[in-house]
Every structure is written in C-alpha cells, then in structure tokens.
Amino acid sequence: MGHLSYVRPQTLEAALDHLDRHGGATKILAGGTDLVVDLRNGGVRPAFILDVSRLTELKGISLTEEGLSVGAGVTLAEIQASKVLQQHAPALWKCAFTFASRQIRNVATIGGNVAHCSPCGDTVPPLVIHEARAVLADRKGMRHVPVEQIASGPYACSLPSGEIILRFILRPANGITFCDFQKIVRRKELATARINAAAMARQEPDGRISFLRFSLGSCTPTPRRMPEVEDRLMGRAPTLKMIWEAGRLLAERTIAVTGRRPSTVYKESAIQGLFFRILYPLVRS
Amino acid sequence: MDSSAVRIQFTLNGEPRSAECPVETTALKLIRDFLKLRGTKEGCGIGECGACTIILDGKAVNSCLMLAAQLDGRNVQTIEGLSTGEALHPIQKAFVRNHGVQCGFCTPGLLMSTKALLDENPAPTRQEISEAIAGNLCRCTGYRQILASIEDAAGRGSRKD
Q: Is the pTM of this model over 0.90?
C-alpha cells in the first residue's frame, strides 16, 4: 500500500475543502464496514481516507417542509430505532431489521450503503419507492439528485469526487395504506440479498389501488422503478391473477435490462414470486 | 490529523491509552498486535463471524471492519475488561455453567455481544437474544447452550461493569 493519510475534519466546510483539493484521491469513510474490507483486499487504494462519521451535519432523522429527511450518516441501528421512520417510511424502517448483523448496523450508514453502489444494497429499494433525492454538497453549493441516478453501474458511483451526500429527502408515506420490504436470502440473518424489493401503495375502500410504488433491488446494474408494472395495477382492485401477471411483467422487464444469463432461469421465477409475495395482501377476498 | 501514521487516544477497559499506528491498521490489529490483547479473535476478517466483536461507546461492533483511527476519543471494552482479575464476570460464569463454550474461539465475541445486549436490555426475550448474536458464528455448540447461557446470565441479573 502506498502513502495513506487519515483525515477527520471537524466541520463540513473542512471536509468539502479537502474534497475540493484531493477528492479524486480520497475515499470517504462513514461507517467503514464496506471500505475497510475494500482497503484490506486492495480493491481500493486511496491516498486519503476522509472520516466523516462525526460530522453532525450528516446526522438526524426529521420531518421537514421539504419531506422526510434522513442524514447520510444515520446508522442502520438508528433507522431501526426510529419511530419517525416506522411511521413515515415503514419499508426503510423494516429493511434495517434484516440488514447484516447488530455489529454492522451499529456502524454502517445509509449514505455509505447508497454510495457504495452495490446492486443489492438493502436501503436502496425503500429509498426509491419514496422517490428519494440525495442532497449533495461541494464547495460551491448544493444540489439534489434522485437516488436512482447515484450508481452508474455495480459498485460504480456517478457522483463527482468533490461532492458528499449530506442527507436524503423522502416523500413521506402520507395516506399510504400498505408498505413492505422483503428479500430473498440464503439464511435468515447476516445474509446479503439475492433479490430485494420494496413496495408502497394506497388502496381505496373499494379495493382500487390509487397510488403504487414498487422497486426491485439486486437484479439490475442500477436501481430503478418499473412504471409499466405499477401502471398495470393502478386504478384496479387487484385479484391474485392480476398480481401474478404483473409479477410476470416485472420479470420480463428486468430481463429486458439484463439480458438472459445463466441465473435468469432462477431469477425469472424468483422475481415473479417475490412480487407476488409482497403484493398479495392487496387482494380483497 | 493528517499523516501516514495516526496517533490516537482512547479509553480501553476503563484506562486511558494512546497508540500510534499506520492508517490502514484495523481496530482489531491495534488491539491484538500493538496492544497485545489477544482475547479478541480474528475469524473471517470481513465482518461475517463476529469473533472480533468489541464494545464501542456501549455498542457491539466488529473490530475487523473498523480502522484503529476510528477509536480515537472513544470508550472501548474488550474481553479482557470483562472479568475483574481472576473473578469471572456473571456472563462468563453463566457460559461456564451452561456449557456455552466448546473450542472457545467464538466465545470472546459472543460474550461482548451479550454484554452489549444486557447493558441495553437486561431482560431480553429469546428472540431478542437470537437477533443480538446473529452476527456471531459458532461452529461447535449449535447455539442452544449459548442461548441458554445468555438467558441464565439475564435471569440472574447481577451484572457489574
């Protein structure tokens, strides 16, 4: 390993100054649970580690005028303990319970999970259904970017090296009657998702769906919504058959993005099955 | 702080400590190789097995996934801080009584996860215990004796720091 320096700025301004000068040679450390593994196996070789874990500007969960704000430095354990998220972003709250292990949840952050750009990051589908925007800062100012646009590919972050994620702004789940997060894993705990997904819906008293957001994780190189799949169920009172068919459409649209590969035989059925498993509670008998 | 070595100061098992190490040194390596406290174990080195669990500001964390620099200014407890001299901590006694130890490699990590759990929640349900130690793998016991040990430790409720 070459010369490596550790920098822990006292203020956000100092962090942004550092990134302005050395961003390209810097890896940002929030919790470090992914970064330390990458450093160890030589996957990354930065000249600087910028430890932002103690910056208060990256902390906190609150309802604001612009939406539900979740600091990039909020840990998964903090998400798990948050009554505000339980009420206003239940899928995000739920995903924290099965995220890695207690030890990792105590340290790992939502900002790190998003910026690491793993296709199977568990916080990503819940953020996507809330149409979350990341608030980014650099030395010149701030801008908002939809969470779907942060990854440019698996483990590839599109954000300029001078920028840092401050927080996420989620559309709160007002009037939502249904919300869920589920994943398919090889064991119950400490398991990386093979497939994960989040959904949020509003169902009218007559059973019709008047609002639906669904996001599938782990299957495409970058996160996305599938509006055609949502549209298939919008305005309708779903039957089991409709949900099964919408799941089929989701699998087809996903394969249209990835192409057919050896794992497609499994994923095709698994995507449809997971979609069905999440959404069948919307069927009124 | 901006150089290829980091100087850190922290509290380790109640005592103030300082250390200097290369930036890439993990907290685990600092504890084992620099400070010569070999109770904390390295199993997988990538946060899967929990053998390296320590308590940082009251919370269980994997020391293999953390840089030594991240300990600066914080309160760290390792397995060496659990007993008082020769006197075992009540959690350790409960593990002995219930045969919660076989080869012993996972034990320091499990004890630290248990300590963090019981400090926060003195009367956990079996489900809460199970969730708290899900990040600690044991290849010997099949976990039943470990769960029994933790329930026993919680039931006796005579923990001390």
A: yes
